[in-house]
Amino acid sequence: MSMKNKICIVTGSNSGIGKETALALADMDATVVMVVRNKQKGELAQREIEAATGNDKIDLMLCDVSSMKNVREFTANYREKYDKLHVLVNNAGAVFSKRQESEEGYEMSIATNYLGMFMLTHKLIPLLKASAPSRIINLSSGMSKTGNIDFEDLQTTRNYSSMKVYANTKLMVTTYTYALAEKLKGTGVTANVAEPGFVATNLGANTGSLRDKIAFMIVRPMQVSAKKGAETSVWVATAPELEEVSGKTFAKKKEVKSADVSYDQEVQRCLCEETMTLLGLDS
Ligand SMILES: NC(=O)c1ccc[n+]([C@@H]2O[C@H](COP(=O)([O-])OP(=O)(O)OC[C@H]3O[C@@H](n4cnc5c(N)ncnc54)[C@H](OP(=O)(O)O)[C@@H]3O)[C@@H](O)[C@H]2O)c1
Question: Whole-angstrom Cα distance, residue 194 to residue 199?
Answer without folding.
Answer: 13
